[in-house]
Amino acid sequence: MNEYDRDQPGHTPQPDPYSQPAAQIPAAQHPAMPQQQPQIPGQPAQHPWRSHEPHFASPNPYTWQHPTHTADTSRPAPLGAGEGGGTPPGETARNEAPRGKRQRPWLMVGTAATLAAVLASGGTAAVLQNTQGDSGLTQVTSSGTTVAPASDGRADWQAVAETVRPSVVAISARSQAGQGAGSGVIIDAGSGYVLTNNHVVEGAQQLAVTLSDGRMYAAEIVGTDAATDLAVLQLQDAPDDLVEATLGTSGELAVGQDVMAVGNPLGLDSTVTTGIISALDRPVSTTDQSSRQMVVTNAIQIDAAINPGNSGGPLFDSAGHVIGITSSIATDGASSGSIGLGFAIPVDLAAGIADQLVTDGSAEHAYLGVTLSDETVSSGGVTRTGAAIEQVVEGTPAAQAGLQQGDVIVQIDDDAVGGASSLTGYVRTYGSGDSVTLTVVRDGQTETVDVTLAAREDAAA
């Protein structure tokens, strides 16, 4: 198994945001780069990027990473980080690379949390998904307009940026492992709630949030969900003039649609980049190094520039609505920056999880109860790739529905399943108690199986 072990350029150390007043903090820190520590004589130089050690399991020569500051591994890691953790009870993760495929690492663009990435097409554990009820957060449909288009009908990005930038924040995180940074979006101005990625704040002992006008506030974690890589923070002594973002919906997005990302890449806060949606439902899998929790998302793929430090920041449509939370990028291995392959968690998933975190401090997940791998199968003269069931856990929804070892799931409701991660990502879009229809190939014959998803509290939440 290969490791991402490429040397990275250093940079000039920046002032500590926790010991400096807001006015003394430079506008362009480099949170995506680890703070440099004195080298100990006789020991090799430390490379903090190596705390992101992707597990290669994909047929593509690209490296996937989370866009945030990586922890400084020259300091002691917090208890439970790195090699500790283990797979949550009742799950068996399969991280082997599919036979006959080249391996690809995933690199996360996040903060002090150390995350290892697993190829999107690799195996996955018992399929989990979020339990979505009626969200307490307000989402608007695509027809609702926050920012009107230009007179010629094209996106008015200048107007969108002016409207939405006050709702985007920069996040600094300090832990035993070092100092890191990422981005976030204000989702409730009255309560001071900020939505970001779990890997931006995981293990943090101190958190500071910087508003778009430079004001800084301490923050506390309201709740985290490792299974979806989401977290909610609350500003302490928040001002009464916070600007919250308008949450859109992600169910009607289209490939080719204009988008804008706003965040804190390389410490350059309130940076705006634009592009288009390159693909939808792109399976992206990563592994949380602390909990060993598999994070699988059918993500929004974009070509807008996403770089280390963007993790947790919002992705907007041309109307100024949040449609996703940027969380990872792909690189070619020659650099850790953007090559036009960025990924965002769809806002429908993010809003449901955020509402649970605000209400309960944790998120509940439903599951099928199977161990999966990728498999190519033929039926009715058609050959395709699906999610093969390696094991059915007794007493789970999958067992109760009659799913069997050896079944290959090729469709869930109306969505084609391209592999294990694809199925996991789709299941996460359903709620506990929902019934889904799985199309499976069993002994060369295609049949359908109805499954009612059940809930359990995620061990890592």
Automatic annotation (TrEMBL):
Compositional bias ranges of the Low complexity kind: 20-48
A molecular function GO annotation: serine-type endopeptidase activity
Residue ranges of domain PDZ in the record: 357-444
One Pfam match: Trypsin_2
Origin superkingdom: Bacteria
Spans traversing the lipid bilayer: 106-128
Keywords for this protein: Hydrolase, Membrane, Protease, Transmembrane, Transmembrane helix
BP terms from Gene Ontology: proteolysis
Chain intervals for the UniProt region annotation (Disordered): 1-105
Residue stretches of biased makeup (Polar residues): 60-73
Signal peptide: none
Listed PROSITE patterns: PDZ (PS50106)
PANTHER family with a match to the protein in the record: PEPTIDASE S12, PROTEASE DO-LIKE 8, CHLOROPLASTIC
Family: Belongs to the peptidase S1C family.
Protein name in UniProt: Trypsin-like peptidase domain-containing protein
